[in-house]
Specification:
The protein is of the alpha/beta class. The protein folds into 2 domains: 81 residues, 2-Layer Sandwich (Nucleotidyltransferase, domain 5); 115 residues, ATPase, nucleotide binding domain (Nucleotidyltransferase, domain 5), CATH 3.30.420. The protein has 8 helices and 11 strands. The strands form 2 sheets. The protein has a 6-stranded mixed sheet with strand order 6-9-8-7-10-11, sandwiched between helices. Strands 3-2-1-4-5 form a 5-stranded mixed sheet, sandwiched between helices. Strand 2 and strand 3 form a beta hairpin. Helix 2 packs parallel to helix 3 and helix 4 crosses helix 8. The longest helix has 27 residues. The chain is globular and about 55 Å long.
Length: 252
């Protein structure tokens, strides 16, 4: 937090509003120096940070509602770019309904094209939903798949059945196969199910691209890292890096 408060004039602010969390990143001299994460309910604290940041420009991305007061504050404090489907991009969108494409998926694709230029890349983003997206070596976003995230799978089993419990502490639980209780069986069903899902998308993509790079991002990837650590490269701030590239492409 101290780095954001003491940011210099040659700094950029990246604000990424997700379904459950808001992430704020500071880039100084084109380098990511700090990332803060807040609940979507922390508008007052976020506003205070923005006022003290001193950033000369910023980019705002949201997959959910943006508070008008927050947008107004950002516009008053800096040159602001709000990402939309009309925003100019350093990649090509090969998607049949670009107007429905989430800005988080766009940002991930832009970052993948930057870090792995001239490579075919499969991006796996473990957020509220799990997104599997392909960017080819020509810098074209080819599309992908959207699946329920980890917490969403546990919640849906509880809500849509009469007796299955809501498991909220799955992150601290071991995965056992075969499950010896309803709880163990549910955890195995979700966690091993996602591992199998990942394997299927990786196999399909590898069949289409001979030299495929696989990268991951999102808060829940660490729970699957052990199973795929030898073939997947983790980029925890991929979305923020992509948003910063979009900002530079439009304002520099």
């Amino acid at each position: 937090m101290e780095k954001i408060r003491k940011a210099r004039k040659n700094s950029d602010l990246v604000i990424d509003i997700g379904n459950t969390r808001i992430k704020i990143a500071m880039f100084v001299n084109d380098k990511l120096v700090e990332v803060l994460s807040f609940s979507n309910q922390s508008a007052k604290e976020i506003s205070g940070l923005i006022e003290k940041s001193g950033a000369r420009r910023g980019i705002l991305s949201a997959v959910t509602h943006i508070e008008p007061a927050l947008k107004s504050l950002l516009s008053e404090r800096m040159e602001l770019l709000e990402v939309s489907n009309a925003t100019k991009l350093p990649i090509t969108i090969g998607y049949n309904s670009p107007e429905t494409l989430g800005t988080d998926r766009i940002a991930n694709a832009v970052a993948a094209a930057k870090f792995y230029a001239k490579s075919d890349v499969l991006i796996i983003d473990f957020g509220t939903c799990i997104k599997y997206d392909l960017v080819n070596a020509d810098g074209i976003f080819c599309g992908g798949a959207i699946a329920p995230g980890v917490a969403m799978r546990f919640e849906s089993m509880h809500r849509m059945t009469g007796k299955l419990p809501l498991i909220s502490d799955w992150g601290s639980s071991n995965v056992s196969w075969p499950g010896k209780s309803t709880r163990e069986s549910m955890i195995a069903g979700v966690m091993l199910g996602i591992e199998g899902e990942m394997a299927q998308y990786i196999e399909r993509a590898a069949n289409d691209y001979d030299s495929l790079m696989i990268i991951s991002t999102g808060g829940d990837y660490s729970f699957f890292e052990k199973a795929y650590k030898n073939i997947i490269f983790a980029h925890p701030y991929l979305t923020l890096e992509g948003l910063h590239e979009i900002l530079k492409f439009n304002i520099d």
